[in-house]
Amino acid sequence: MDSPGRNHRRRQSTSISRVRIVQGSCWSCRKRRVKCDLTKPSCVRCTQIGATCDYNNRLIRWSSKRTLPVSPSYQILDQGSQLAESLSINEKRALAYFQGRFWPLMSTASTPCAPPVTLALEQRVLLLAICLIADRHRVLQDGRNSLRVPQIKRVECLAAVRDQLNEFCASGKGPMVELLLSVLMLYFHDGYLECAEKSASTSSHQAGVRAIIDKLGGGEAVLDIGPECLHMLVSEFASTDLTTTMLRGGLPYFSPGIWDRIEQRSVWWDREPLAQCSLASVFGHISSMVHYHESINSGLEELRPECIRQFEISLTPSYATHRSQDVYASEIFGWDETAASAEAVHASSLIRSFQHAALIYLYRAICGLPTRHPLVQQHVMPCLSSISGIERPSRVLNCVILPLLIAGAHVQSIKDQKCVVNMVNSIYSEIKFASVQLVSNVLDSVWRLDSNELSWFEMFVELGPDTVVL
């Protein structure tokens, strides 16, 4: 047991060491349990030891521990995020697939413009069109998914488009840019992915695109409005509209002189870095030849050698070359010369393949020369060589189907035909477009017949009215 004297000494020692905290002391003095002189902004004791003097009512401490996630209902979202939160799981998946997988296939540009995802979040008719084309392509890509979902989406999307058109006809107002994007999506959906099915109606969607563009003021007016993604899709529509008339006859929607305007903003092709030739100018010359061919058929003009010679000069195949100023620019501005050279070669190869294909069209469709004529055959193998020289992986290969179809239909040897088949299969394995399979079927049909006895339009009649080739 403790003695009374020891307990007395313990109580005395405790009372002596205890320091009462002055009311209003800083937090540093409170923690060290010393007397604070209440000097502000910093007391004497904190100044002497270099401590932080804090007179706040509450002590604020920063913690390194991870905080719990905030519930989505309390998060502050921008408009796009708020709209995305309202989508179903299937719609979110379709948008992600469209943006990451399908949209890059629509362009050869190294840095394509942004897809119309934000507009799709604001206009459901566009959202349905994008989800439709994404779900349909996923079926072709995987080969396991059911067609039931795209079929339901197709019916819903067509109904939404009709409702928008009825609303516009009734009030004269409506989201015409988004509606144009929606019908463009339907056009490419049927022309690229659905062309082998009975439900395809590519020509109807093509007429719908033309009608909406007319309502917006025509091709010239459309090129001055809308986001970049619209211009990119319009450039692809103009290209496929031109190739359709090139293979089946008729007149393209856009005039030959508009192609320079088209190239001033976003387009589906990558511009040739060395600026020796433009794919837009090639399309302009092809359009002029199509118009010239129709004028001859209608009796408005006659076949004149000087016109043929002018087309030959305009479509002389171009080649990418290195120039000293390009090397200097790469040293001064830090450009990647190797990457720039590959980009220039691929872009030039794409342009050159279209130039050869256009000259084959000139000699076969306009001049009426047979398949085996030397003027025709002199462009067949160079066209295929331009395509086969494009190194993989390259987005340029996704858009050489038309030159490959035209040149492939005119090859003579079995060895060259096998090379064409390998190139077609390689492209199909990359993009999984049903239109590429139909191109393979057309080539096989032409090779089984005597191609020298077939006219230009007879060669491609089995392509069908709903197939879009680029």
Automatic annotation (TrEMBL):
One of its GO terms (cellular component) is nucleus. One of its GO terms (molecular function) is DNA-binding transcription factor activity, RNA polymerase II-specific. SMART domains: GAL4 (SM00066). The keyword Phosphoprotein does not apply. It is found in: Nucleus. Its main location: nucleus. Keywords: Nucleus. InterPro entries: Fun_TF, Zn2-C6_fun-type_DNA-bd_sf, Zn2Cys6_DnaBD. Pfam families: Fungal_trans_2, Zn_clus. This is Zn(2)-C6 fungal-type domain-containing protein.
